[in-house]
């Protein structure tokens, strides 16, 4: 814990936690760490959690960074939730900024989100998350489905939101003290379907435990989230929508369908129809890709609904309602 900076009186202390798992992301991971190290003002500590990959941990420990960076291996079950829970355990900041290993943050990201948390009623904040395409963006890909890539999507407005997006989010440590860590039954793993919703489940649980609190979207700063070529495909798009349906099914059993699907109702009744209308309007303006985007909107909704229908039945039969690790908040030296 020697790299932790002594706090300045009256200022929230901060930690940046970056979770990684694959040496195949080495270049973008280093960019993510370097961007975290260039925050102004600087974070009190930067911790990189390596998810059950000893070889990657050795590579990171051998590298010299501009500022002190702690490399810690995940002590919880494999997956993003377990890695984040390890980050909670080993860090000390009153505010934790979680970054994906392929998200390169703006220099003022931490300061922008911490300003939101100076309001005691704000439990956490999420920034703008912009897609950084490795190849040209597919003409058929709709803005409304950028959430499949972990990015800010059309229909998300500044201000209060039900849940944060994990690639670039800041959360008070008090939230974990009161509610526990991320649910390891929902977090992504390297080998499983790209299941998610662990941030949504945590935020719902937190607002139940701390009803005075809220989460907010602050888009004035953000991160560039790398999108590799294999994610700019129809196959990945539909696979990710299917997995989201499975995840939402589990979440609806844990948190109740009202809270688990509240944002989705507005999304389905307003955002998606408006997107389809926009697509057809583009066709009339001589842009044939508008028709492809309209088709993608319908296909994405259908894949998500199918995953939800299957997942609802499967989860009711096989999955426990909660698997939140009770030890996630115990400090680890």
UniProtKB/TrEMBL annotation:
The lineage of its organism: Bacteria, Pseudomonadati, Pseudomonadota, Alphaproteobacteria, Hyphomicrobiales. Residues 16-177 form the Glycosyltransferase 2-like domain. The chain crosses the membrane at residues 290-310. The keyword DNA repair does not apply. This is Glycosyltransferase family 2 protein. Pfam families: Glycos_transf_2. Belongs to the glycosyltransferase 2 family. InterPro entries: Glyco_trans_2-like (IPR001173), Nucleotide-diphossugar_trans (IPR029044). It comes from the Bacteria. Keywords: Glycosyltransferase, Membrane, Transferase, Transmembrane, Transmembrane helix.
């Amino acid at each position: 814990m020697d790299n932790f900076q002594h706090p300045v009186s009256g200022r929230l202390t901060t930690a940046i936690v970056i979770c990684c798992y694959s040496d195949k992301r080495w270049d973008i991971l280093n960019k993510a760490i370097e961007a975290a190290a260039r925050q102004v003002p600087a974070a009190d500590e930067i911790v990189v959690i390596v998810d059950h990959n000893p070889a990657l941990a050795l590579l990171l420990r051998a590298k010299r960074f501009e500022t002190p960076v702690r490399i810690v291996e995940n002590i919880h079950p494999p997956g993003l939730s377990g890695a984040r829970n390890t980050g909670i355990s080993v860090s000390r900041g009153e505010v934790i900024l979680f970054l994906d290993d392929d998200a390169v943050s703006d220099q003022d990201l931490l300061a922008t989100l911490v300003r939101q948390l100076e309001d005691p009623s704000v439990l956490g904040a999420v920034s703008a998350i912009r897609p950084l395409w490795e190849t040209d963006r597919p003409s058929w890909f709709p803005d409304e489905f950028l959430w499949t890539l972990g990015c800010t999507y059309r229909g998300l407005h500044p201000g209060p939101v039900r849940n944060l997006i994990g690639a670039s989010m800041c959360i008070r440590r008090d939230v974990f003290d009161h509610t526990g860590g991320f649910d390891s039954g929902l977090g992504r793993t390297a080998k499983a379907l790209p299941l998610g919703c662990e941030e949504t489940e945590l935020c719902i649980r937190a607002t139940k435990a701390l009803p005075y609190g809220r989460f907010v979207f602050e888009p004035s700063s953000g991160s560039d989230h790398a999108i590799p070529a294999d994610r700019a495909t129809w196959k990945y798009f539909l696979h990710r929508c299917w997995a989201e349906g499975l995840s939402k099914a589990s979440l609806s059993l844990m948190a109740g369908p009202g809270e688990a699907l509240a944002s989705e109702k507005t999304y389905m009744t307003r955002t998606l129809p408006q997107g389809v209308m926009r697509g057809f309007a583009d066709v009339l303006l001589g842009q044939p890709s508008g028709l492809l985007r309209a088709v993608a909107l319908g296909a994405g909704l259908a894949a998500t609904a199918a995953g939800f229908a299957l997942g609802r039945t499967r989860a009711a039969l096989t999955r426990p309602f909660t698997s939140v690790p009770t030890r996630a908040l115990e400090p680890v030296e």
